[in-house]
Amino acid sequence: MSLLSKDKVQEIRGVLDQVKRTQGGIAEICRQVDVKRRTVYSVLNGESSDFESLRKVVNAAKKHLKNRAKEIQSL
């Protein structure tokens, strides 16, 4: 049983889906913060309680998306 609400899981998956579409994707984000993708998806599926690792990946993904938006705006 996941401690994350279904809405929160959907929100996080939405952020991760946006990152998938960019160059490098989730794998690159996970490498940057030294977290395995398997861990991220285990937490989202309720199989793990390593919320700290999930938080690191989500924060890095949001930062990546924000930087990407700034880059697009500057064009």
Give an account of the 3D structure.
- With 75 residues, this protein is an all-alpha fold.
- Helix content is 75%, strand content 0%.
- It has helices at residues 6-20, 25-33, 37-44, 51-74.
- The N and C termini lie far apart (45 Å).
- The relative contact order is 0.17.
Query: How many strands?
Result: 0
Helix-strand makeup class: mainly alpha
What is the helix tally?
Answer: 4
- Output the helix-strand order: HHHH
Largest sheet, if any?
Answer: none
What is the 3D shape?
Answer: globular
* Helix percent band: over 70%
Strand content: under 5%
| Intertermini distance | 45 Å
User: Unreliable runs, pLDDT <50, ≥5 residues?
Assistant: none
Rg measurement, Å? 13 Å
Mean pLDDT: 88
Summary keywords:
mainly alpha; 75 residues; globular; 75% helix; single chain; 4 helices
In short:
With 75 residues, the chain is mainly alpha-helical. Helices cover 75% and strands 0% of the residues. The longest helix has 24 residues, at 51-74.
Mind sketching the topology for me?
Elements: H1 6-20, H2 25-33, H3 37-44, H4 51-74
Helix pairs in contact: 1-4, 2-4, 3-4
